[in-house]
Amino acid sequence: MDVFILMALADGPVHGYAAMQAVRDRSDGAVRVSTGSFYRRLSLLMKAGFVEETAGPRDDDPRRGAYYRVTARGRQVLADERERLAALVAALDGLRPSSRRGRA
User: Fold this and answer.
1) Can you give the CATH number for the domain in which 37 is found?
2) DSSP alpha helix (H) spans, the chain
3) CB within 8 Å of 26: residues ≥ 6 apart
4) Which residues contact 6 (CB under 8 A, 6 or more apart)?
5) In the predicted model, is pLDDT for residue 56 greater than 60?
6) Count of domains forming the chain
7) Which residues face 70 on adjacent strands?
8) pLDDT tens, 1-48?
9) How far is CA 72 from CA 36, 47, 66, in A?
C-alpha cells in the first residue's frame, strides 16, 4: 500500500480522504484501504521522511484535516520502485515459453 500512498500524493498536496480514494482508484480496487490502516501506513511514511504534512489550499473547506505531500526522499523511493518494477517486467518479457515434452 505504501507505494500507492506515495503515488496518490505525488501530484500535489491532498487531504487524507482524497489520498485514500486515489489509492483505491489507482489500484483499480485491488488495494483495500481502511481508515485505520491508511493512517497507520501514512504515519510510518512520515516517520521515514517520505511524506510530510503541509498547508492545504486556501480556498478549500476549513473543516478538512491535514494535507500531505511527498518529500524529495519519497519521490526518490517512487523512482527507485519504478526502476525495480521496470527491470522485473523486462526480465519477465525475456522469458521464453518452455517447450513441452511430447508435444509439437
Assistant:
1) 1.10.10.10
2) 2-9, 16-26, 35-47, 72-93
3) 4, 7, 8
4) 45, 50, 51, 70, 74, 77, 78
5) yes
6) 1
7) 51
8) 899 999 999 999 999 999 999 999 999 889 988 999 999 999 999 999
9) 26, 14, 19
| pLDDT band at residue 57 using 50, 70 and 90 as cut-offs | confident
Does residue 49 fall inside a structural domain?
yes
Question: What whole-number distance in Å separates Cα of residue 99 and Cα of residue 94?
Answer: 15
Helix/strand/coil for 65: coil
In a domain, 52, yes or no: yes
Residue 104 lies in a domain: no
- Residue written as grid cell 481508515: 35
Q: What pLDDT score was predicted for residue 92?
A: 92
Radius of gyration of the chain (CA): 19
Amino acid identity of 49?
Answer: G
- pTM for the complete prediction? 0.80
